[in-house]
Model the fold of this input.
Amino acid sequence: MRVLIIGTGYVGLNTGVVLSYIGHDVTCLDTNAEKIALLQSGKTPFYEPHLDEMLAEVGPKMHFTTSYAEANLSTVDVVFIAVGTPSLPDGNADLSYVRQAAESIAQEMNGNFLVVVNKSTVPIGSGNWVGSLIKESYEKRVGAKADGYFSVVSNPEFLRQGAALFDSFYPDRVVVGSENSHGIQRLSELFAPILEQNFPAPACLPRPEGLTGVPLLVCDLTSAEVIKYAANAFLALKISYINEIARLAQRVGADATLIARGIGLDSRIGPRFLNPGIGWGGSCFGKDTAALVATARDYQLEMPIVQAARDVNYRQRAWVVDALQDGLKILKGRHITLLGFSFKPDTDDLRDAPSLDIARLLVQRGAIVRAHDPVALQNAQRLYPDLGVRYCQDVYEALQGTEGIVLVTEWPLYRELDWEKIPPVLVVDGRNFLDREKLKSLGFSVLGVGR
Ligand SMILES: NC(=O)c1ccc[n+]([C@@H]2O[C@H](COP(=O)([O-])OP(=O)(O)OC[C@H]3O[C@@H](n4cnc5c(N)ncnc54)[C@H](O)[C@@H]3O)[C@@H](O)[C@H]2O)c1
Done:
């Protein structure tokens, strides 16, 4: 099929690469000309494991453009909207990019039946809204009814940054929501190789043993939209739940990592998303939980559980700074090192990264902050040049003369450091990730989360 993807970020580019690999003819369109130029020259605009290898493999078959004329919508079967939906100050999602994309589609569609897929995470009701925008704009331009020329389908994305390609080749499920059976049929055909798992697995991303098929959940548009928010909020609250238990564990002298194991072995609960730590960050959980609370408010409902998960999460960031202050007593003038800056390993994404709040709080309290990250420093320098943090490419430079260390992101390299070379100071292990016995034997004081 011919596929157009509008928005070539983490979701759009990843989707494009996977659809191209399984045999579709894919064009990725973005308003960011710099990004498109990079992609046209075969380079990746952000860090994501295996993306460069996969782009080298399928990239020459894909088309990258900023122009709708070049994308030629009249020959397209499926168009994905995968633009950003960042948070507005009131928690609602900013839909201005989705609006632009929908209006551009209406300006360019040309008589062939087009399936418009909302892949961006959009508030409940947005599918209908996108449908009305396209209809209104098309009818104004053409002077004839748009009915029968397009249908809107919701196909929420569940990928994890850092494992985006793996998650798209081997998803737990594919959700397709629409009131239009032609739209559903076309998407089922588009995703057939993924659903049936009958494509040859890429060498760098072998198929998990025993995976013979992926469930397809077909539902109405609104349910698909709610599924996305409900899934993210549930994962977010699992993390906050264990962090709340970690607080109690610390107070009563218990070990939250053992508690997490003890409850995670219960198959009704499961072990994932139960690691006590400094909480979630990234482009999704914060934004999507805020949007869920805001949407509920629009319908005169409260979401106290989701709101509490948010409160607990953002408290964890201040806890780190308080823990350092308790240990060092005075932060003013102290050299503090942050190990890791991205919101999680295997990505250079800094959206809602805990490191940013931790750095701000430390700087406010007078600390001299140095930070290291294996891939995110370029973004940090570009986006946060005035944070008051010295970004160090060399991890040992960041640790030279340090008086306190915070492990912010669990990049494996931090476990493997030559800790003998580093001054034995207080380490706040924000992810319970380091080898605490080894560090203690070298004279470090180690404070974990909930231990
Ligand atoms: N990143 C994730 O892990 C993830 C996972 C699931 C769902 N989502 C959702 O997917 C959507 C996209 O997220 P992302 O992380 O890929 O965002 P992103 O910011 O990485 O990419 C969005 C892209 O859209 C482009 N864009 C904006 N307006 C445009 C327009 N009118 N026409 C063409 N391009 C336009 C931007 O230039 C940017 O390149 C969001 O709604 C997000 O919530 C993200």
